[in-house]
Specification:
By secondary structure, the chain is α/β, with parallel strands linked by helices. It has helices at residues 30-40, 83-96, 118-130, 143-152, 173-182, 196-204, 214-217, 222-242, and strands spanning 9-11, 14-16, 20-23, 44-48, 72-76, 102-105, 134-139, 156-159, 188-190, 209-212. It has a 5-stranded parallel sheet with strand order 5-4-3-10-9. It has a 3-stranded parallel sheet with strand order 6-7-8. The mean pLDDT is 92.
């Protein structure tokens, strides 16, 4: 849903109504994947190229439930630990998807934290941008790194809220706000969202969108959580546009003192 008096949500020159982006991993089967994504209202769906069958192998095919005619596919480089591997993976996705240019770049530092390797991320981004890709980039919540990635030409900056799959929410909201305030491209919190209030918080900080997967896929009721996330992103965006009341150190009564009845 596009809110009234809101600027378009634009990625790589294309406008979207939903500011919620979702992944396809960790569901019990493809049927649940398709149903949850439909409930979320998301228009952009990301998937790990290295772990997903798009028809290159026999067996269940993700495209059977996530139709490219309905969704914008966002191949990602999950599982890559070097710039070289990430670039190769994006080029493979481009071949599999008939010249598709929009990718989500993530280059990880280690298997324990899945924290981004910023040095390798910068190298991969430079190569991919020179090769004509539209790069949405997963990175740390360092505002200086985010500024550098934008200056290189990345079309969206995606700082982590907390570690991938941790569900801890946004651990450093001040840095996320700094990234939002300095950026002229969309900023989306990516990683760490655990529940609807986390998604709403990201939007209230001024983020342009939220990308999540585990919070829906590992919920007791994924379809219900998908609906909750849709509502949370919309509510958080509306609250940001409305502008929160100022914080005060003292109470401020809702009812005026003038005209009160004194006993």
């Amino acid at each position: 849903m596009t809110l009234q008096n809101d600027a378009p949500f634009t990625i790589a020159g294309r406008n979207f109504s939903s500011r919620l982006l979702v992944g396809t991993g960790k569901y019990k089967d493809f049927d649940e994947t398709g149903a949850a994504i439909a409930e979320s209202g998301a228009e952009i769906v990301t998937f790990a190229v290295r772990r997903t069958n798009l028809g290159q192998e026999a067996g269940p095919n993700l495209l059977d439930v996530i139709s490219p005619s309905r969704y914008t596919l966002l191949p990602n480089t999950a599982g890559c630990y070097t710039a070289k591997d990430a670039v190769r993976t994006c080029r493979l996705a481009r071949e599999l998807l008939d010249g598709h240019k929009l990718v989500k770049l993530e280059v990880l530092g280690d298997e324990t934290t899945l924290y981004p390797n910023v040095v390798e991320t910068l190298k991969a981004a430079e190569t991919l941008l020179a090769d004509g890709f539209d790069v949405m980039v997963y990175t740390s919540d360092d505002p200086i790194v985010a500024r550098e990635l934008e200056a290189m030409g990345c079309c969206a900056i995606m700082p982590l809220g907390s570690l991938i799959g941790s569900g801890h929410g946004i651990q450093n909201p001040h840095n996320v706000r700094l990234i939002v305030e300095q950026s002229s491209v969309p900023v989306l919190v990516d990683a760490g969202i655990g529940t609807a209030s986390d998604a709403a918080m990201a939007m209230e900080l001024g983020c342009d969108g939220v990308l999540l997967n585990t919070a829906i896929a590992h919920a007791r009721d994924p379809l219900r959580m998908a609906r909750a996330m849709k509502s949370a992103v919309e509510a958080g965006r509306d609250a940001f546009l409305a502008g929160r009341m100022p914080r005060r150190q003292t109470a401020d009564p809702s009812s005026p003192f003038a005209g009160r009845i004194n006993g």
